[in-house]
Amino acid sequence: MKKRLSQAGKTTRSNFITYGLVIVAFTVLRLLQSGGALTSSLSGQLVPICAYIVMAISLNLTVGIMGELSLGHAGFMSVGAFTSVIAAVSLQGTISSGWLRLAVSMAVGGLFAGLASLIVVVPVLRLKGDYLAIVTLAFGEIIKNIVNCLYVGRDGSGLHLSMKDAASLGMDADGVKIMQGPMGAVGIPKLSSLTAGFILVLLTLVVVLNLINSRAGRAIMSLRDNRIAAESIGISPVRYKIMAFVTSAVLAGMAGGLYAMNFSSILAKKFDFNASILILVFVVLGGIGNIRGSIIAAAALTVLPELLRQFSDYRMLVYAIVLILVMLITNNPQVKTFFAGHRPGMKRQEKEEEAGNVL
Amino acid sequence: MFSKLIPIPSGSMIPDRDIDKSPILECIGLGISFGGLHAVEDFNLTIGRTEIAGLIGPNGAGKTTVFNLLTKVYQPTRGTILLDGRDTQGMNTIQVNRAGIARTFQNIRLFNALSVEDNVKVAMNSQMHYSMWSGILRLPGYWKEEKIAHDRALELLSIFDMQDLASVRAGSLPYGAQRRLEIVRALATNPSLLLLDEPAAGMNPSETAELMENIRKIRDTFQIAVLLIEHDMNLVMNICEGIAVLNFGHIIAKGSPEDIQSNPAVIEAYLGKKKEA
Amino acid sequence: MSILSNLINGISLGSVYAIIALGYTMVYGIAKMLNFAHGDVIMVGGYMAFCSMTYLHWGVFPAIVLAIAVCTLLGVVVEGLAYKPLRQAPSLAVLITAIGVSYLLENAALLIWGSDPKVFPSMVSVPTQNLFDGDLTITGASIVTVAACVVIMVGLMAFTSRTKMGKAMRAVSEDKGAAQLMGINVNATISMTFAIGSGLAAVAGVLLCSAYPTLMPTTGAMPGIKAFTAAVFGGIGSIPGAMIGGLLLGVIEIFGKAYISTQLSDAIVFAVLIVVLLVKPTGLLGHEIREKV
Q1: Is C290 within a domain?
Q2: Interface of A with B in 220-259 (CB under 8 A)
Q3: Do B85 and B205 sit in the same domain of this protein?
Q4: A-chain residues within 8 Å CB-CB of C101?
Q5: Residue C32 falls within a domain, yes or no?
Q6: Is residue C291 pLDDT above 80, yes or no?
Q7: Average pLDDT of chain A, as a whole number
Q8: Residue B229 shares a structural domain with residue B266
Q9: If you ran DSSP here, which 8-state letter would residue B108 be given?
Q10: How many separate domains does chain C show?
Q11: Same-domain pairing of B31 and B72
């Protein structure tokens, strides 16, 4: 009886460690930040790290928990980023509190990202494996392309949109240009902070971890593990895949909002295919389905290029080589048996089976 | 071990069931063709409400195809399926499960990354009602229903004495335990008809004897019907009350175990025609 | 005439995409992996031709041969070092490794040749055809490109259906285990597939740079993505599918640029892809793999 209770608590204990890790890291960084002990480059990385952590966790929800490869996750970040900037600028007169404006803008970003994901999810439901990857990739490119051609401005009479140029916005003289086509978004209010990022990370953790440990999470994972069996016990793929995918997109949208409002201007190019791949690398290296791993990988790999600055030109080359080596090493059968054998009380045959059991 | 299992009290998640009325399953002229190939044709079968029935036949006869038709993995191209008097025409797999048919698979299809207990709990999903937000915010509905599910899952697992394996990863179970878990998972959906596809595959005689006992007890306790596909004739002849024999997609014989054992068409199907002297 | 003009341009661009897409689809068919580094092999081919012609003053044909030789070798080496050890690993691991290789190639090129765009020398001696009294102009590069595409397609179809190695490739694509049991050297077959794919990428690189003469380390990336899209569009794993997908994609891109919007042409191409996949989820020529229950 006691044994059963302690094992049921295994997931809860693991989650506590994750929360603890995040809280401790935030506390330390906040102290360092207010004490002025951080280098300026690291200081500037704090909000992006939070945003990338949320991106990695939300992508892991799609890739690890739902089991579908998405190559356009940055597209949702993009939608969230630009819509929340538009909201933040538009609400400048109405909401004076920076905090509230940030929260509302991020929520708007999440909402629009969620809506966008509903458009993508319909083909997602019918396609399998690599075809889904392609559709998400295509979506990411479409978003990038559209944002690059979008002109948005605001004046006394409201919002103006144009796909052609700034002049055709038809705004009053005192109108504010928010988005300028290929020049991206400008004049962004810098509302983000480490604390805001921390809160978003916590929120993401609560949503994702609690979702996984609920009946919806079990349903989503059962569809991942064996769709035919899941249907045979009454689990609806449509309902649960939409649930997972939209949740993932909303979180990505909010991360986009946080990220955007850390800078005074951003380009659509920041959220291209490379960005989607970057986040996917975080997820794979951290462990597919491993939320804590995503957090660590996202933080470490965002900081790493900065640490490698001394290599300057060779930086990305080293990054690429390290990436290949890590993949080769962690997937080497001998290495896997070696690590599998470290679990106490496992019989030798079980160890070999475990090592051979590739997900 | 099994005697611990109490017949379901009313007021729990499982509704009352009417015994001794009409048959639970009626297949009338059921058939499916893949292009020109008639995989199953003119399949007529009636199963009583608490009957244990068997579907046998040589390899490739179409037995699993019949299961796939009943569970709408394939949509029949001909015929009717009446489940508890209700025509399942147009239903998909999910709806048919909600209507009361659950199955196991010939090649085990467990949720390997999930624990044994979660495999069973996910099958109870349609009987649980708390929303996604209740789950995220951990509202009282979550705690209440999860507790009921947890208790019920352990109760079902105890049929096969597997309750101590609750937190083991399903993919790492030995083969026999995986087969048994599939049966428990199917039972957790609260079916009125349980389809077992070669439940004794890979089992030794003593395990098979235990399985026989357990199938009987499942039927007795839950008052459901069981239709099983099997190659183990010992199991089939001992436990099935009615048997249908399938060959090349057609039923060639139907009846009690005694009828089937002495039926020349059945013998010919399995052993081939006796060579004329 | 402008429709015809655009059509020819589209077919010409599409031919390049088709040749690249062939590499993606063959590798996917046989190794079940999406080789994201493929686009960068194109770039390497372009630089090899560029360097040999500009610095070594080689002629056109030796330059092409060099490009093909180097890329083929590159493909085989990358496969042996980075992909082969991961054959048993989950497909996501191989995908990330391919991405690592892609970064590696791009950044190595950046270090060697710098980020400034190089001007690709003219390789095509076929003169521009002026038809219909100058209404219709077909550049020499277009003619060569389309001709090359046709030759490659015919050659590849003959290769896979007639030769022993070609049949071996098809066998390994269908069922690796069974092919091995039949005595086919699976490793050699896979290496050969990568070799052919990479060689084709070199050809595509040279053709691409002939039509669009600026060369940078990132030149291969976007065509790579588009060609990958084309391969899926046509049905991944299908050689004729890659051809059709590539050609259609090129035509759609050029028509999109000409008749709808230059800036939004990419969005249009990808949107068409999504629509096609909605209607035919396995691509134009792809077939559904039925799971046995």
Answers
A1: no
A2: 221-222, 224-226, 228-236, 243
A3: yes
A4: 320, 324
A5: yes
A6: no
A7: 84
A8: yes
A9: -
A10: 1
A11: yes
Residues of C in contact with B73 (CB under 8 A): 293
Residue C69 lies inside a defined structural domain of this protein: yes
A306 touches chain B (CB under 8 A): no
**Touching chains, B (3+ CB pairs < 8 A):** A, C
Q: Which domain holds residue B129?
A: 111-172
Q: Are residues B64 and B74 in the same domain?
A: yes
Q: What is the pTM of this model?
A: 0.87
State whether C96 and A317 contact (CB < 8 Å).
Answer: no
Q: Per the structure, how many domains does chain B have?
A: 2
- Domain range for C173: 23-221
At C22-80, the pLDDT tens digits run: 999 999 888 888 888 999 999 999 999 999 888 888 888 888 999 999 999 999 999 99
B95/B209 same-domain check: yes
Backbone angles phi, psi at C66, to 5 degrees: -60, -45
Where in chain A are the domains?
A: 2-356
- List all chains that touch chain C, counting a touch as 3 or more CB pairs closer than 8 Å: A, B
Say yes or no: C288 contacts chain A, CB-CB below 8 A.
no
CATH no. of A2-356: 1.10.3470
Tell me the three state secondary structure of residue A177: strand
C-beta neighbour count of C173 within 10 angstroms = 20
- At CA C216, angle to CA C213 and CA C218, rounded to 5? 120
